[in-house]
Amino acid sequence: MGKYWVPSRELMLQDIRDSFMKIAMLQGYDIIVDNMNLNPTEREYYDGLVSMNPEYVVETKDFFDVSVGECIKRDKSRPEPIGAAIIMATYKKYKDIIEAGKTQ
Questions:
Q1: Are 40 and 76 part of one and the same domain?
Q2: Predicted local distance difference test score (pLDDT) of residue 78
Q3: CB of 37 closer than 8 Å to CB of 60
């Protein structure tokens, strides 16, 4: 749907995501969501969707144990890096969640 986030496409993309995930569950596929958006609304969405199908369980893997410097280093080797500025902005946005995860 393009290289960049475009707010006017968001509802359409959510509808596509919903349809895809429901069909995948009906057909018994494992589903992996690669998403760096850690907000509670996203997590609640997946929990709610999976609650309709007791054969599925939501498992979350975070990479809070990887330093920001290492993330920037790894990003540089990707075919289409997002850049240090975006990585730093994302880290700052979720810093409280990341720090809380380290103390648990």
A1: no
A2: 94
A3: no
